[in-house]
């Protein structure tokens, strides 16, 4: 389980004053996907970066399975993150790109090698071990990035708009894979997306983020039908 309480941060502006103060509260159960939607610049990616340790909060707690982690360096936190840009090394083959999630030295034991093969099989990458990223489709590249995150076997997975460059059919396929992986691995997953359809397919619950705050968490269909919050109404009306 992932729980965030009063996690606060303020971006400095060019003149040194605060440009936007953020403060987040949310929780995600193990085996579940929570989607984050909201306008550009609302703080969705900043929230993931705070949880991952790429930004240092001014206050608040981050708990994974009841253990506070906000004091840990990013590399020591029991979570993985997948970005829109894949972050694959173009000169390395698929197997090696995934192996980097386990050991930067690439010295793998038999159990680690088997875990890579299992992750590739789950994500439909069998037979592509020796391919370079440039020889793969966009969907295959994103599967490699997810496989690299999965082999680390962390209880939390963060995804920052990972399917933006994919067409509708491939997006749906990837979300179905992600839902099954969350269940199989009992992971707490946060998925940031600009597409309400992604949230509807991926998540039982969705959070709406606006101006650095989570202003509503609700069952996805209820949130997407919400007419009480003017911010949500305006956002959905512009989609």
Short description:
The chain is of the alpha/beta class. Helix content is 33%, strand content 26%. The protein has 8 helices and 10 strands.
Description:
With 239 residues, the protein is of the alpha/beta class. The protein has a domain at 1-78 and 158-164 and 190-239: P-loop containing nucleotide triphosphate hydrolases (Rossmann fold), CATH 3.40.50.300. Helices cover 33% and strands 26% of the residues. The chain is built from eight helices and ten strands. The chain has helices spanning 44-52, 94-99, 110-122, 138-150, 168-185, 196-202, 220-224, 230-237; strands spanning 2-12, 18-28, 33-37, 59-64, 67-68, 79-83, 156-160, 188-192, 205-210, 213-219. It has a six-stranded mixed β-sheet, sandwiched between helices. Strand 9 (205-210) and strand 10 form a beta hairpin. The chain is globular. The mean pLDDT is 90.
């Amino acid at each position: 389980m992932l729980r965030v309480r009063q996690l606060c941060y303020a971006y400095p502006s060019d003149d040194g004053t605060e440009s936007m103060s953020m403060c987040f509260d949310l929780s995600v159960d193990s085996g579940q996907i929570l989607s984050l939607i909201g306008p550009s610049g609302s703080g969705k990616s900043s929230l993931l970066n705070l949880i991952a340790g790429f930004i240092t909060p001014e206050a608040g707690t981050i708990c994974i399975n009841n253990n506070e982690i906000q004091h840990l360096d990013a590399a020591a936190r029991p979570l993985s993150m997948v970005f829109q840009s894949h972050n694959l090394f173009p000169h390395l083959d698929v197997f090696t790109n995934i192996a980097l999630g386990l050991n930067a030295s690439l010295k793998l034991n038999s159990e680690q090698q088997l875990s890579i093969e299992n992750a590739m099989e789950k994500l439909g990458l069998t037979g592509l071990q020796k391919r370079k990223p440039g020889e793969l489709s966009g969907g295959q590249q994103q599967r490699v990035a997810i496989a690299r995150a999965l082999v680390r076997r962390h209880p939390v997975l963060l995804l920052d708009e990972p399917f933006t460059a994919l067409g509708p059919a491939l997006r749906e396929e990837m979300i179905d894979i992600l839902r099954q992986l969350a269940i199989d691995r009992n992971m707490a997953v946060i998925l940031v997306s600009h597409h309400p359809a992604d949230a509807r397919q991926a998540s039982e619950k969705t959070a709406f983020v606006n101006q650095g705050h989570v202003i509503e968490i609700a069952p996805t269909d209820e949130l997407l039908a919400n007419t009480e919050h003017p911010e949500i109404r305006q956002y959905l009306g512009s989609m």
